TrEMBL record:
<protein>
    <submittedName>
        <fullName>IS21 family transposase</fullName>
    </submittedName>
</protein>
<dbReference type="InterPro" id="IPR012337">
    <property type="entry name" value="RNaseH-like_sf"/>
</dbReference>
<dbReference type="GO" id="GO:0006310">
    <property type="term" value="P:DNA recombination"/>
</dbReference>
<keyword id="KW-0815">Transposition</keyword>
<dbReference type="InterPro" id="IPR039552">
    <property type="entry name" value="IS66_C"/>
</dbReference>
<dbReference type="Pfam" id="PF22483">
    <property type="entry name" value="Mu-transpos_C_2"/>
</dbReference>
<dbReference type="InterPro" id="IPR054353">
    <property type="entry name" value="IstA-like_C"/>
</dbReference>
<dbReference type="InterPro" id="IPR036397">
    <property type="entry name" value="RNaseH_sf"/>
</dbReference>
<dbReference type="InterPro" id="IPR017894">
    <property type="entry name" value="HTH_IS21_transposase_type"/>
</dbReference>
<feature type="domain" description="Integrase catalytic">
    <location>
        <begin position="113"/>
        <end position="296"/>
    </location>
</feature>
<feature type="region of interest" description="Disordered">
    <location>
        <begin position="373"/>
        <end position="405"/>
    </location>
</feature>
<comment type="similarity">
    <text>Belongs to the transposase IS21/IS408/IS1162 family.</text>
</comment>
<dbReference type="GO" id="GO:0015074">
    <property type="term" value="P:DNA integration"/>
</dbReference>
<keyword id="KW-0233">DNA recombination</keyword>
<dbReference type="GO" id="GO:0003677">
    <property type="term" value="F:DNA binding"/>
</dbReference>
<dbReference type="InterPro" id="IPR001584">
    <property type="entry name" value="Integrase_cat-core"/>
</dbReference>
<dbReference type="InterPro" id="IPR009057">
    <property type="entry name" value="Homeodomain-like_sf"/>
</dbReference>
Length: 457
């Protein structure tokens, strides 16, 4: 086989007067081939495609064409099982390639818009945004917009978050339900990992089941809604929640500055309440807030109790008395003895336990890289240059006119109850021990998380 460049070189050497033998020696080709190409002149060689060799699948191609012509949506996995019953011994990869080539192309059809009745469906999705906060001008931050849109009225609840983790998803669901004052019958998701773990293949059925995240199912059971995953690569199935993302980006996000994530959500909530949910929707031709007022009675009522599904973790305490949960650091008391503690995470609370007893409880911090030290966890004051935020106790109220009672903080009672101790019995026992000369070296044993009642024989 002679390439076009080699053919040009042969013709150039022939024009320079070299003999056929000399050209053959220089190019390494046979003399008869040299004569043929010189006689043919500058004509690009024409190559025909190599004939396809028969494969193990070739005898079954007529059957595949017949089946796909009758049922174009049959999967390659289903066809593989049928072919194996007919004696096929080949592999799955070549079958996929052949099915992809011979599957009939569906004729394009018009999109069908569907509307849901009041209270029937909500749609959930995330959108990706980049911004630079003025408090941190040297860092470009990635934030995600969680959005839930009611399918009937197009009422939208949304919040910018730093992560798409399961804890954030659950917390946003709860806040959205509280804002709506009710729960839709079903909620539509795409294939995000916090909602859908994957598909369950059933060899006895051509369709596949959906494996949902167990924590999401617990939330759905508590609030009484049905999670529903849309088909892969069918983003238009949940267009009611995806279409507003462009509206948010163009009408709100662009050409604005934000100090930090909290400021971003404050401005966004104001925009939602004053503009987005008060506009006349282009599809329904109704004002969103007024339309939602009609849909709200059709929503399911909120449950009586809070959602308290617990995610149990095990963490090590750092040298400075902090525990890492979700990229943030939470403090434990200085008297914590174990280096490994248990952590229970709910949608809004992080509780740290030592030997099964709660020693610290913190609200969940938004974002990553933050630290929180609770009041009473440190016996020594922080250094002057410390930037770590701590809980600030409220200043005591001024004494009433003519009174002699000095107000005291009641935080000690919260700490006692947090450790499953009855406050009156604990305080009485501790005061009696101190009056009776309890050793000063063992005062740490009288703290709420170490205290053990005296059992009289």
């Amino acid at each position: 086989m002679v390439r076009l460049g080699e053919l040009v070189m042969i013709l150039d050497l022939a024009r320079e007067g070299l003999s056929v033998s000399a050209i053959a020696r220089r190019t390494g080709l046979d003399r008869k081939a040299i004569r043929k190409y010189i006689a043919r002149g500058l004509e690009a060689p024409a190559y025909t495609p190599r004939p396809a060799r028969p494969t193990l699948l070739t005898p079954f191609e007529p059957y595949l064409r017949e089946r796909l012509q009758a049922f174009p949506d049959l999967s390659a996995r289903r066809l593989l099982r049928e072919l194996k019953e007919r004696g096929y011994t080949g592999g799955y990869t070549i079958l996929k390639a052949v099915v992809r080539a011979i599957r009939p192309t569906p004729s394009p059809s018009f999109e069908r818009r569907f509307e849901t009745p009041p209270g029937k469906q909500g749609q959930v999705d995330f959108a990706f945004f980049k911004t630079t906060f003025t408090d941190e001008p040297e860092v470009e931050r990635i934030v995600w917009l969680f959005s839930m849109v009611l399918g009937h009225s197009r009422m939208m609840w949304a919040r910018f978050v730093a992560r798409q983790d399961l804890q954030t998803v659950l917390r946003c669901h709860i806040a959205a339900f509280d804002s709506f004052g009710g729960v839709p019958e079903q909620i539509l998701y795409d294939r995000m990992k916090t909602a859908v773990l994957g598909e369950i293949e059933d060899p006895d059925q051509p369709t596949q089941g959906i494996a949902y995240n167990p924590k999401l199912l617990s939330l759905a059971s508590h609030y009484g809604f049905l999670p529903k995953a849309c088909k892969p690569y069918r983003a238009k199935t949940k267009g009611k929640v995806e279409r507003p993302f462009r509206y948010v980006r163009e009408d709100f996000f662009l050409a604005r500055s934000f100090r930090k994530l909290e400021d971003l959500n404050i401005q966004f909530t104001q925009w939602l309440d004053q503009l987005a949910n008060r506009r006349r929707h282009a599809t329904t031709q109704r004002v969103v807030a007024e339309h939602f007022a009609e849909e709200r009675p059709h929503l399911k009522p909120l449950p009586a109790g809070p959602f308290n599904s617990v995610l149990a973790l095990e963490r090590r305490v750092t040298r400075d008395g902090m525990v890492s949960v979700g990229g943030n650091l939470y403090s434990v008391p200085d008297c914590t003895r174990r280096r490994t503690v248990e952590v229970e995470v709910t949608a809004g609370t992080v509780t740290i336990l030592e030997d099964g007893i709660a020693v610290a409880s913190h609200p969940v911090l938004e974002g990553r890289g933050q630290r929180r030290i609770a009041t009473g966890h440190r016996t020594q004051p922080p250094p002057p240059n410390s930037q770590t935020p701590t809980e600030v106790a409220m200043p005591p109220a001024p004494p009433l006119q003519g009174g002699t009672v000095t107000p005291r903080s009641l935080a000690i009672y919260d700490t006692i109850k947090l450790n499953a101790v009855e406050p009156f019995a604990y305080l009485r026992d501790v005061l009696e021990r101190m009056v009776n000369g309890y050793p000063a070296a063992r005062l740490a044993d009288l703290l709420p998380w170490n205290w053990k009642p005296v059992v009289n024989a």
